[in-house]
Amino acid sequence: MKPVSHISGKAIPFGAKNIDTDIIIPARWLKTISREGLGKGAFESIRSQDGNIFDDPRFSGAPILIAGDNFGCGSSREHAAWAMADFGIQAVIAPSYSDIFSGNAFKNGLLAIELPQEAIDRLMQVAEDAADEEEPVSIDLESQTVTTVFQDRFAFEIDPFRKKCLLGGLDEIAITLESEGPIADYEAKQAADKPWLVPSSAMS
Amino acid sequence: MTGPKTLYQKIWDTHVVERRDDGTAILYIDRHLVHEVTSPQAFEGLRAAGRKVRRPDLTLAVPDHNLPTTARRDENGARIPIADPESAAQLAALESNAPEFGIRYIGDADAEQGIVHVVGPEQGFSLPGTTIVCGDSHTACHGGLGALAFGIGTSEVEHVLATQTLQLKQSKSMEIRVDGELSAGVTPKDLILHIIGVIGAAGGNGHVIEYRGQVFKEMSIDGRLTISNMSIEAGARAGLIAPDEKTIAYLKGRPMAPRGADWDAAEDYWRTLQSDEGAVFDKSVHIDAGDVAPTVTWGTSPEDVVPVTGKVPDPESFADPAKQEAARQSLAYMGLEPGTAMQDIEVENIFIGSCTNSRIEDLRAAAAILKGRRKAGNVKWGIVVPGSGLVKRQAEAEGLDVIFTDAGLEWREPGCSACLGMNPDKVPAGERCASTSNRNFVGRQGPGARTHLLSPAMAAAAAVTGRLSDVRKILSQKELT
Fold this sequence. Notes:
- The complex is a heterodimer.
- By secondary structure, chain A is α/β, with parallel strands linked by helices.
- Helix content of chain A is about 35%, strand content about 15%.
- The longest helix of chain A is centred in the last third of the chain and has 14 residues, at about 180-195.
- The interface between A and B is large, with 61 and 90 residues.
C-alpha cells in the first residue's frame, strides 16, 4: 500500500444516503480477475443519466467524494474500493459507512472519513460554492482534520492502527506475520483442546 | 472480562490470539469459504508475495456466482462451455487456484456444489462457536448455527489465506428479542424483513446482532439461516442464534462434522454456547411477533418494507428529508405511485432461490402453494434455483420439481443466479420480479430491474396471481396452520 498523508482538491457533492456497493460497481464488472481498470464501471447506473454529478465538469478530477449515511452498504465486494480509486477518488467523507466497506477502503489506502451530518452539509455547500478553486477541501491525516478554503475546520476520529498503517503504507499481512509465535501457540492449544475443529475429510 | 457474557463475547474471547494496545485483536479464523468472484486477486497476491495458504484444511472452495443454472454437462458428461468468457475465466481461476494451494474444491458438476452459504451448513463445515469468513457479505448466514460468521473483502481473504487470522476490533452487541408467536402464513423471511424495517438498513452498523426469544427457539435451522443471512441488510456484519438441540440434531452425521468421541466433545462444548443470564447488550430491540404480517418491499433498500396488505408509502410521510428524497428516487426507479395497494402491483418475473431462501424448506413452502396451480398469464419468466445439488436431489425425491414445472416455472441447477445476475439469469429492464433474494438495490437483478423481496410462499403466490399477493388468501386455513 502507498503511504497516505494529505489529500487536497475538489470534492464531489454527492450526499446520497445508503449508497450500496451495487451502485458503486454493478455485478457485471465483478467478473475480472484483476484489481485494475474498474473505474470505467464506477457509479455506472448514476453516470448513465445526463447531467449526473460524477461527470459534471465543475468537479472533474475531484479526489474527494462527499456522501450520506451508511455509504458502501450491501455486498462485501472490494471492487467498490478498487473502482473508486481507479476513478480517481482518494477519500470519502460521510456520516457513516458499512463496516465492510470502511475496512476495504482502508486496505486500499482510500480514506473513509466520518464527520457528523452538519459537517457534511457544510462540505456539500463548500464543494459547490468553491468549485472554481483548485483545492476547496483538504484532508490531513496526521492532524486528523478536514479544512476548507473558507477556513472551516472539522476534526475526525480514526482508529490508531489504521492511521499508522495508512501513514506508513504498511502491509497488514506482514504485520500479522510478525505474530507467528502467538498464532502457532494458539493453533497448538486448539489442536489439543478442540481436535474436532479440523473438518472431517470425507464428503457425501 | 468477568461477569455474565453475551454469546458474541464468548466466541470472540475464545478466538483472540493477541490483543494490541490500540484495541485491535488478532482473531483466529476456524473456517474460510472461498468462491470465484472475490478470490482471484487474493490468490494472485499470495503468488506475488511468495506466500502459501496457512491452513488449507480449514478452507473450502466452491464456485457459485457465475455458474449458469442450465445444464453444465452434455449427455456424454463433457463440460458445456460457458458463453461469457469473463465468467469462464473467473471460474477457471478458482478451479486451478484451489489445487495449486492445496484447498478442497467442490466442482461445478459435483452433487455437493451450491451456494457457499448453503453448502457450509449442509456439509457440516460450518459449526457452532466457530469463526467463519468468506468474501461475501451474506456469510452472516452461518450465524443461524451459532457461529460468528461475517463477510470480508478480498484483501482480508488474502490475509486469512496467508495467516488464518484477521486484525479486527470487537463490534458492539445488539439483542433483537422477538416475543410471542408468528401468525399463520408468516415466515422467517417476513420476520427478518420486518426487523430490517424497524431498525433500518444502517441500524446494525458496528454491531453483531443476537436474535433471541421463543420464536427463534421454535424456528427450524433453515429458518434461522434465513434470519441470520439478512443481518447484513440491517448493517450488522454478523447475526447469531444460540445453538440448541435442533442445531445439534441438524449437524449430526453431516460429512464434515465431527465424529465419534470428537462429536461428543463438540456437542458438550456447543451446549455452553448461549448468552449468560444477565449479560448486557449495547443495544436492545424488542419486537412483538404478532405484529409481523407477510411482508414485501416497495423500494430500493431492504428497509423499504410494508405488509402485503399495505400501500406504497408517500415519500412525504417520512420525517427525515434525506429519506423523503431517497423514497422519491426509489419510487421513480420502481415505477410506483404513492397510495397504490401492494396487491395491485403486477409482476412479470419470479425468482425463488438465493442464499437467503433456497434450502429444502423454502422449496417445500413454495411448492405447497404451487401444487395443482399454474403461473398467471402475465408472468413471463419464473425460475426455481435450489441452493445446492443436494437440495436439488432432495426436492426431486419429494417431487417438488414436477410441481414447479407443472406450474410453468423452470427448475434449474444450483447457484446464486438472479439474486445478482452475474450469470445469464437476469430480470429485464423495467420489469418487476417477485424475488426471494436479499437485495432490492437499483440494478441488482439486472440493469433497470425492479425487485420486490418476499418469502418463498409469497413468491409462489405472486406467480399464481401475477401480482404481489397475500399468501393467506391462497391457502386454506388448514394449510396455513
